[in-house]
Design goal:
The complex is a heterodimer of chains A (about 325) and B (about 350). In chain A, the strands form 2 sheets. In chain A, strands 1, 4, 5, 6, 7, 8, 9 and 10 form an 8-stranded antiparallel sheet that branches. Chain A has a 3-stranded antiparallel sheet with strand order 3-2-11, covered by helices on one side. Chain A is globular, with a radius of gyration of 21 Å. In chain A, a hairpin with a 4-residue loop joins strand 2 and strand 3 (about 55-60). By secondary structure, chain A is an alpha+beta fold. Chain A has helices at about 20-35, 40-45, 80-85, 90-100, 160-165, 190-200, 220-230, 240-265, 270-290, 295-320, and strands at about 5, 50, 55-60, 70-80, 105-110, 115, 125-135, 140-145, 150-160, 175-180, 215. Chain B has helices at about 35-45, 50-60, 100-105, 110-120, 180-185, 215-220, 235-255, 260-280, 290-315, 320-345, and strands at about 10, 15, 20, 65, 75, 90-100, 125-130, 145-155, 160-165, 170-175, 195-200, 235. In chain B, strands 3, 6, 7, 8, 9, 10 and 11 form a 7-stranded antiparallel sheet that branches. Chain B is α+β, with helices and mostly antiparallel strands and about 350 residues long. The longest helix of chain B is centred in the last third of the chain and has 27 residues, at about 290-315. Classes of the chains: A alpha+beta (about 325), B alpha+beta (about 350). The interface of A and B includes residues 90, 94 and 97 of A.
């Protein structure tokens, strides 16, 4: 790699199909600290919400860029395109300067400006993406966004296409989230926080957003999502399938969390086994539904059964973790 | 081409020709106790026909809440999260939250950015350390991070135009020299400097919130809030006035009083009177008999605020009892006449 090239740590190994913000943050944190990310993820993405009117299932409700946990430095630009254009910044130079300060750039990018690195085809549709490096010789930025199958994948963004990619897309504003991983930060899990979050998840509430009436939270949110999907009958399509895929990510994080807690002996290993079974069950059911099976309702009911099993064991986990409140993990 | 005086290179390929600009802003917003309402109303009162604004205000700021956590004790007369009317489609907002050096990376200094946006017609809202702003209570004394709004600049005089409270306790227009503003920003302890740019939308039609008056008044009387909730330490509606009374009395016994409590109460009652008088005037409902009640409550609230000022000047112990009594009467009167207003509505 040439000296002028720069690639910030970004883990693309996991087949992430979650909401963009979650997948990007996960890839950055994991890329920076490897398995040390486990205490962080054990506190993150526990609760969830479902906004029925917008059909939006969300697993990142608070502290989205983890800046409140001091894990990331977050900067933000949100300007109308006319105003941004009036500034006439040299965008390619701006992005390179940010990357040289180890800042990841999350922004909306025009699909046909991005080239898939594996099959050299352009991306379909505009979407949020993360720019995590550049190669001067090839004159490209290195970016990641979901591919057509919904998995996070690497793309090239040529230097000359940057202005068009960012200023000429479907988004009304030019919006950048700038994330800087604080390299000295090693996350520590707080068991009482995990316990409190699990309790909120199980009781279908969210302290910060308790005033909001529209979305449902926690277990109720998942039940509402499933009911909504069942209501679609055989016509189940997007965005429901995407929401169900996000649900599998929620169960993946729950399994990772329980395996970590079992490893450090905060919970008995059978709870990690239970989380693994539940993830497998949900993933299998969602796979069947995504494969356009004949009877989606049958598989949605199977997800409901998994949810019942989860509620049963998680309440015991929350109780266990609340003992010795304030204690911290590895 | 020769540069004219006033031309200044701002961005790489652009110049700002105006050396002086001042955006319209009313010097007497109908509420000034908190900057967020003062800023929205200051902009609206300078640009929107009075009749339209009256109609809009009629459905706004009905409920209120008091934060009770020590150190954060305030009576809020706006419980909306959308304090600047962005969601309502009144003002547009753009934002920058960046380290000072990132502004430079984008192609302009923080100060050039502000001037450029002002010259494009945007009001600038942010946070600075008032320890370095001459005329402010904290000037030269202590670190005090506070919000500000900039409505203009003058390159010849080298100052920004702002509005807000100065040490004399008056809400007013004033200038901050470029140098002082720079010092006020450079001493901010936050890593990130936040800037929000607001502009009144073209041909804006203020939303009609009249239909919400009844449910909001019900919430107020029941001390609940269905519209939105702030932090967990908030008490809503008429109980918020009671909570504010308790906080005021407690602090007066300690020899102190935050005048924002009494001012907020006074402004809330002013807006209530304004609402009822407007509805009556428009013939929307025959509320004339209640306009008198609302006016009496407003006068009592004025008296409460003046008592507060007098207390801070004289520290007379007897004032506390008078202030408490007046607030009791406010609560009593509202509990008596507002249910009848709801019936009429």
């Amino acid at each position: 790699m040439r000296k002028e090239d720069l690639v910030l740590p970004f883990d693309l190994l996991d087949r992430m199909e979650s909401a963009y913000g979650v997948a990007y943050l996960y890839a950055i944190v994991k890329g920076n600290i490897g398995d040390n990310y486990l205490p962080w993820i054990s506190e993150k993405y526990i609760n969830c919400s479902y906004e029925k009117s917008e059909k939006a299932f969300c697993i990142s409700l608070w502290d989205t860029p983890s800046s409140r946990k001091k894990l990331m430095q977050h900067q933000f630009i949100d300007l109308e395109k006319d105003v941004f254009q009036a500034l006439q910044p040299d965008l390619a130079a701006f992005l390179q300067r940010l990357l040289s300060k180890r800042i990841y750039i999350n922004t909306h990018i025009r699909g046909d400006c991005l080239m898939d690195r594996s099959n050299r085809t352009t991306a379909v549709g505009d979407s949020e993406a993360v720019i995590f490096g550049f190669e001067s010789k090839r004159r490209v930025f290195l970016a990641a966004r979901p591919n057509e199958n919904g998995y996070l994948a690497p793309y090239d963004l040529p230097f000359p296409a940057v202005r068009r990619a960012i200023c000429d897309n479907e988004s009304p504003n030019v919006c950048f989230h700038l994330w800087n991983y604080r390299s000295k930060t090693i996350p520590v899990a707080n068991f009482s926080t995990i316990s409190a979050e699990l309790t909120e998840y199980l009781s279908s509430r969210h302290a910060k957003y308790a005033y909001l009436q529209a979305p449902s939270f926690g277990v109720r949110a998942i039940r509402d999502l499933i009911d909504d999907c069942i209501g679609q009958g055989d016509h189940l399509g997007e965005p429901h399938i995407r929401n169900l895929k996000i649900l599998t990510e929620h169960k993946r994080f729950m399994r990772i969390r329980m395996q970590y807690l079992a490893r450090i002996r905060r919970v008995p290993p059978e709870y990690a086994d239970a989380a693994e079974r539940i993830e497998a069950g949900v993933r299998s059911a969602v796979g069947q539904i995504d494969g356009r099976c004949a009877d989606p309702t049958h598989h949605l009911k199977a997800i409901e059964d998994q949810l019942a099993a989860e509620v049963s064991y998680l309440s015991r986990v929350a109780e266990l973790l609340s003992q010795g409140a304030g204690e911290k993990g590895e | 081409m020769r540069k004219k005086k006033g031309d200044k290179k701002i961005f790489m390929n652009q110049t700002v020709k105006k050396s002086k600009i001042e955006l319209p802003f009313s010097e007497a917003p109908k509420s000034t106790v908190f900057y967020y309402t003062a800023f929205l109303l200051g902009i609206l009162q300078s640009s929107v026909p009075a009749e339209e604004l009256d109609r809009y205000l009629c459905g706004k700021y009905i409920n209120c809440c008091t934060q009770i956590t020590p150190g954060k004790q305030k009576l809020h007369i706006s419980i909306d999260e959308d304090k600047f009317g962005v969601e309502e489609g009144i003002l547009s907002r753009q934002s920058l939250e960046m380290k000072p050096e990132t502004y430079a990376d984008l192609g302009a200094s923080f100060f050039d950015f502000i001037k450029q946006m002002l010259s494009l017609g945007y009001y600038v809202y942010g946070y600075c350390n008032e320890e370095y702003i001459p005329g402010k209570s904290a000037f030269g004394k202590y670190y005090f991070l506070h919000d500000y709004i900039l409505i203009g600049y003058d390159d010849d005089g080298k100052y920004f135009s702002s509005v807000g409270y100065l040490g004399d306790g008056k809400f007013q227009k004033y200038g901050i020299s470029y140098r002082d503003f720079q010092a006020a920003m450079r001493s901010v302890r936050d890593v990130v400097w936040r800037l929000h740019f607001y502009k009144l939308k073209e041909n804006v039609e203020l939303p009609d919130s009249l239909p919400e008056i009844r449910s909001e008044l019900r919430d107020y009387l029941a001390s609940t809030s269905n519209r939105c909730k702030m932090d967990k330490d908030c008490i809503y509606g008429i109980s918020a006035i009671r909570a504010m009374q308790s906080i005021a009395v407690h602090s007066m016994r300690e020899g102190e009083l935050d005048l924002r409590l009494t001012r907020a109460c006074m402004e809330h009652k002013f807006l209530t009177h304004h609402r009822i008088a407007y509805l009556h005037r428009q013939g929307i409902r025959p509320l004339g008999r209640f306009a008198e009640d609302a006016l009496n409550v407003y006068r009592l609230a004025q008296r409460v605020h003046f008592l507060g000022i007098k207390f801070l000047m004289t520290k007379e112990a007897g004032i506390c009892a008078s202030l408490k009594d007046d607030l009791d009467r406010i609560i009593e009167k509202e509990a008596e006449y507002l249910p009848r207003v709801i019936e009429e509505l």
